[in-house]
Amino acid sequence: MLRVDAALLEASAPIVALLRGSQLTSASDAIAVSGQSRLTSHGTSLVALDASRLVVSRGALVNVTGGSGLTVTGNLLTLSNGSTLSLLNGPLLSVSGGSFASIGGALVAFGARGQPALRLEQPVRRLLRAVRGIPVALLNGATAANVSIADGAVKSPSLGAIKYATATTALVSVSGAGSKVAVRGK
What we know:
Number of strands: 23
Number of domains: 1
Strand order of the largest sheet: 1-5-9-13-22-18-17
Structural class: mainly beta
Order of helices and strands: EEEEEEEEEEEEEEEEEEEEEEE
């Protein structure tokens, strides 16, 4: 859907905003940041769904790889008014290859009405560790020290649901000793 490669992109609105019954299917990562690129979002959310549906068939909602960086001052994802994000074969956020992701807000924020849902279908068959209740896959030398998740990583959980296919389904994947994820939950 959106590829950022060897570039710098700054945005003040959501990169992906689906509204009023919109439906979109992405065959691979919905947002791919690669090739030592930098993506910075100063908006309230990087991805926002309002009464809409997004399906990612293979890959993550956001994949940061190849020494790239993602900085989001707000939430990574906001779901409201019955919206659904279905990740059929990947996590919400994947960080690898010496890359970093810094999320100032929540990984997932649920908005008003309609019980929005985040569905993760594919289990990870690797080391899975819960960090502040968030299931994280640690791969290829990544350890718990590569991940910092504060309280508030899921905002307004009573207004929505995260549905995991199995107990080994990860919301976040971190691969490689040089890859880092920080979620401040503000």
